[in-house]
Amino acid sequence: MSIWIIFIGFTLLSWLVSHQLKSRFQKYSQIPTSNGMSGKEVVEQMLKDHGITGVRIGSVSGQLSDHYNPAEKTINLSQEVYHGRNVAAAAVAAHETGHAIQHAQAYSWLQMRSALVPVVSFSSKWVQWILLAGIIMINSFPQLLLAGIVMFAATTLFSFITLPVEIDASNRALKWLKTAGITTYESQKSADDALRWAAYTYIVAALSSLATLMYYVMLYMGRRE
Fold first, then answer.
1. Which of 10, 105, 133, 183 is the most exposed place for a label (fewest CB within 10 A)?
2. How far apart are CA 10 and CA 209, in angstroms?
3. Is 0.70 topped by the overall pTM?
4. pLDDT digit string, tens, across residues 30-53
């Protein structure tokens, strides 16, 4: 019963953080950037100021679907961010550019995360099926559940390695937005708040993954006892 309470708690917490993030994005979308730059222009200027070339900027569908693809060296911005000339758009655009800068500077945590991508991609595809089969066959073939635990542990590790990557990208973004004059003293607080709530989504996801991993470990250890 206690494990279900934890799962429900994390589900509600995840919903709350996601709701607050969207709410703040909408709120700060009403605050224009001091120089009227769009998200796309923010990316271009930030890349230029850091002497980075060869990174393409694209537009993708969806809300808050912004991301940096290190394999293709592309910064993909949602429509709202790509065209937006407001603090929320500037903060998100600068954050994604922060990832491109990390890549160019061989930031160690980003390299670690990139190295885990193939493992996590494989694990994510099969882990739930292996864990389910492992639970069903826990008495006759416990090694299957153990294999699932190892695979799930890889995705949990990936979630925690993601945290310093995201936090560092936000710190780079906020520092540049201030020094480049994109934000004012007041709007800088709004940009900071928006990126802080974005970071909370990764923190909740990592903790939720850890709690789930511990559940499977306890299930396996309980069988052994």
1. 105
2. 10
3. yes
4. 999 989 999 999 999 999 999 999
